[in-house]
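I am writing to request your help with a piece of structural work I have in hand. I set the record out below, with my sincere thanks for your time.
___
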Amino acid sequence: MKNIIFRSGISIVLAAVLSAGMTACGDSGADRSDADAGSDPAASEEPFVITLPSIGTSATNLDNIAIGIHKGFFEEENIQIKDAGEIAIPEFVPALLSGTITGATLMTSNGLAAIDNGGPIIQVGTMSETVEENPHMNFIVMKDSPIEGGGDLQGKKIGIGGLSGCTAGFPLEYAKQGGIEDPNDDVTFVTTPEISLVSALEKGEIDVVGLHSSPEQIAFLYPETRILFSDYDIFEDRGGDIGYYFPIEYAEENPEAISHFLAAVAKTQKWINENREEALKIYLEEINPNANADLLRIPHFSDDAVIKQDHTELWIDILGAGDSIQPLENEWTFDQVATNKYNPNYKE
């Protein structure tokens, strides 16, 4: 597989996986009822303090944590969210391991890569997931492009924001499904910040662009393009999860905090899914007035924050294959990289 870099200094998850992820643990620990030991969280003398990065700062994605704080869902669970300020996504894992933040969110594929590279973190819940109308990634071409399917990617240049399991894994799988036997040798990836990708597409320097943008954002910003495919077209709802990660040590020593945190985010996420317009209004008027309504994306959040085992195992299989762009060095099972044991909504 050929890779071209337009600019130096870009963040490539493959080269910096330990700065990509978050959290936590194996199969030890108690469920919430055990952790609570019958106590009412509201009666606790001190709240559980959880420090998270970049709360309410995004101008392109609605922040569920900021909404949950505004709606009082964290207060109901005796959780105090502390804002660590703006932290770049590639710095999440170092910030977790240094104690600068307590938890963070990460694409499942990147979380696996971080764990595989020695990051003592584990996924404890799910923030957002792919649905057909709101996938994790969309790959676009110019409207007059002759590319119509995966088989047409042979010899083409695909622009992505950085080499990772999702950005490169999605188009490689799409090419395979289109009949290209070894897309690693037949597809060239061009890596540069997403903000520059569409310009390169319009100039004919690349043929396809992968964006973490919604169909609505793409239609508004790039009307001369069309969506070729999304991750839903390849894996349906299994490939686009973003999870909550915490250090294993923190999760094992603070099961109550994790449990009540997940209860609060589940309340928040379900409420947003059911009240999208009101959530958008709150975010634009009360949380981030500088955000543009036309550019703001509302992900499809997980109603219960429960991790779906087959979703995680999809990426274990993909990244465990010898031809993966982000290959795992070790063999993993679901229980080693993720757990639902802290989630009060989880039912076996």
